[in-house]
């Protein structure tokens, strides 16, 4: 048996014993990397999957492997790259996966955190983003002196991060000695938390004070993080007074960010506020054409028209559609016809409005943690149950905007303070834990795809 066959045989057995969703989550893009004497090395697509395989399925995997090949006595796990093979699998990759694969060759700069793929050159301008684009361009040409701060807001996937990073990349290109730093707000928050815990607040502060252009992405995530807001307020003032540039983005205008300290809100509103709207049809076509060129593919007009007509509110999804078709084209060596494009994009375009319900959230959480829904509703204090329950409550609050009393009732008649406590606990933990963030996003994928 080759190692590929061996792993296929293992997967076949595992598949019989776990739910399809769990199988897809944990075993997709796994493979045997090497087999030497008694040891087998299995690769997983990310560290989170690696841990789960090790801890939750490790015993079963070893047992099956050993039964297939008596030599095998030990299984090791590592994080490997997902590889382009993904396209050949029956399981269609999620759009974000394809998006990432397409751009893996870009390296994020360690100093600035900038991704060189985001530039002004490949940023398509149309009526929907003309103003933020013009402001961003002006800022990049004269940082600190035109619009300070520049605050860009708009819905998901509409180009905020791209535009913000383009400013940073442009400044770095023009004046390499200027210190530019791009940082997502969650990272900034995590930095504050760590600094406080390690008593390094002073060095944290001074690090940020050397910056010429500070770019803070998705500041809506500062909502309710009082300590972080306070730190950022001081940093902001310091930089502002020294005529250093500050650029911010958010999914909503400053006045709509809840639990934002008034003094910070008024700072955010003190410069230029520019919003990105939805691209019109012509711009959507222009974006598709630009990005086809980048990918060195050419799609028939009717296919472009089909995508632009059916995806209207998210440029990331336009790109995702293109990536799927581009993968097809590269594998088949021919452009997809309209009919093929329709079938390739079926679950992206035709999916009916995805309705999320408390029931769906409960199901997804229970399934993810191998629990019964009634465990989540019970009053058990067992650790394996308490935490998933808190996460489920968190999701009800975050994604459904359920009230605390409603959440309490939905979970077997608990008090609303239990719901508040659970939500807060997870929010706090998320500030310091990337892996919890990944974990919750995996659950979300199930909620939104199921
Ligand atoms: P946001 O931060 O608003 O969620 P992103 O900046 O991450 O959105 O954009 C999502 C994807 O769409 C990125 O791959 C980005 O390069 C692309 N994109 C967004 N706006 C444009 C644009 N005007 N021209 C070209 N590509 C764009
Ligand atoms: Mg973004």
TrEMBL record:
Pfam families: Bac_DnaA (PF00308), Bac_DnaA_C (PF08299), DnaA_N (PF11638), Hda_lid (PF22688). Residues 146-277 form the AAA+ ATPase domain. The keyword DNA-binding applies. Its main location: cytoplasm. The gene is dnaA. Residues 357-426 form the Chromosomal replication initiator DnaA C-terminal domain. Keywords: ATP-binding, Cytoplasm, DNA replication, DNA-binding, Lipid-binding, Nucleotide-binding. PANTHER family: CHROMOSOMAL REPLICATION INITIATOR PROTEIN DNAA. The keyword Lyase does not apply. Residues 113-329 are annotated as: Domain III, AAA+ region. It is found in: Cytoplasm. Residues 1-92 are annotated as: Domain I, interacts with DnaA modulators. This is Chromosomal replication initiator protein DnaA. GO terms for molecular function: ATP binding; DNA replication origin binding; lipid binding. Plays an essential role in the initiation and regulation of chromosomal replication. ATP-DnaA binds to the origin of replication (oriC) to initiate formation of the DNA replication initiation complex once per cell cycle. Binds the DnaA box (a 9 base pair repeat at the origin) and separates the double-stranded (ds)DNA. Forms a right-handed helical filament on oriC DNA; dsDNA binds to the exterior of the filament while single-stranded (ss)DNA is stabiized in the filament's interior. Residues 330-450 are annotated as: Domain IV, binds dsDNA. Domain I is involved in oligomerization and binding regulators, domain II is flexibile and of varying length in different bacteria, domain III forms the AAA+ region, while domain IV binds dsDNA. NCBIfam families: DnaA. Oligomerizes as a right-handed, spiral filament on DNA at oriC. CDD domains: AAA, Bac_DnaA_C. It comes from Candidatus Nealsonbacteria bacterium CG_4_8_14_3_um_filter_37_36. GO terms for biological process: DNA replication initiation; regulation of DNA replication. GO terms for cellular component: cytoplasm; plasma membrane. ATP binds at residues 157, 159-161. Belongs to the DnaA family.
